[in-house]
Specification:
The protein is α/β, with parallel strands linked by helices. It is built from nine helices and eight strands. The protein has a single domain, classed as Rossmann fold (3-Layer(aba) Sandwich), CATH 3.40.50. About 35% of the residues lie in helices and about 15% in strands. A six-stranded parallel sheet has the order 1-8-2-3-6-7, with helices on both faces. Strands 4-5 form a two-stranded parallel sheet.
């Protein structure tokens, strides 16, 4: 997530302390005994306690990370000052239950050669040298070091015990962005989340699949920057007026 987010934060005047945790079974974090999404959420809460404490917190979540981001926001509504969701899982958590479009390739550079049957071909809607490069550098590199056996185990208990939206609405600046051609999480199940977030902007981008931030980088940057504008406006009246200190931003994928 550094590839799509660091350029956004580098352009900001207001400072942010950015945190990019590897969830259990992903990156450099061993899965240990983690066996469910409840366990994943608990590990994330420990991370926030250790690295953020009770200071102002912004949460950005992509895909499954968007599911956890909503859950951590529900639990820490006193602390979370902004929420952004990128191609998140919607109301239907399990893939078999999701209402998603069929995979479609809209742009393909013939110079890429035969990609048919590859992981890239199965997901990418815009298939160019640049989207291929970024997919390898920003996504595949993480998939290759994931503990797939542990993730398969966790997926057996993929649904959280507490629905992230089973509480009072979340009243902080929120951005939700989905791909019109996203065959993984789609956009229709995500739209159903909107009423729970009264301060949410919701965008469905054409020419974008599950790797929306790579396939529509300019729109992704603009939407994220506008969300941060709203967050900073809100922080000006946050309890304790925190504009003199850097809010922490936790990103989850």
């Amino acid at each position: 997530m550094t590839g799509c987010l660091e350029p956004v934060f580098a352009a900001r005047t207001h400072p942010y302390r950015r945190l990019y945790p590897d969830m259990p079974g992903m990156g450099a974090t061993p899965a240990g005994s983690v066996a469910s999404s409840d366990d994943m959420l608990a590990s994330l809460e420990v991370y926030v306690d250790e690295h953020v404490g009770d200071g102002p917190l912004l949460v950005i979540g992509e895909s499954y990370g968007g599911y956890l981001a909503r859950a951590i926001t529900r639990r820490r509504r006193h602390q979370v000052a902004g929420l952004a969701l990128v191609c998140p899982i919607g109301r239907a958590v399990l893939h078999a239950d999701r209402d998603v479009p069929l995979h479609t390739v809209l742009v393909r550079d013939p110079a890429l050669g035969d990609m048919q049957g590859s992981d890239f071909d199965d997901v990418a809607v815009v298939q160019t040298h640049e989207t291929y490069r970024r997919t390898q550098d920003e996504i595949v590199v993480g998939l290759e070091i994931a503990d797939q056996a542990a993730l398969d185990r966790i997926q057996q208990q993929w649904v959280l015990s507490d629905d992230p939206e089973d509480a009072e609405p979340i009243m902080v600046p929120t951005a939700i962005v989905s791909g019109r051609q996203d065959a993984s999480t789609g956009y229709r199940d995500v739209w159903s989340l909107l009423e729970h977030y009264p301060r949410a902007s919701f965008a469905v981008l054409d020419r974008a699949g599950h790797n929306l931030q790579i396939e529509q980088p300019r729109l992704f940057t603009a939407i994220t920057a506008e969300w941060l504008d709203r967050v900073e406006e809100s922080l000006a009246t946050w309890p304790g007026r925190v504009l003199g200190r850097a809010p922490s931003v936790v990103h989850e994928e």
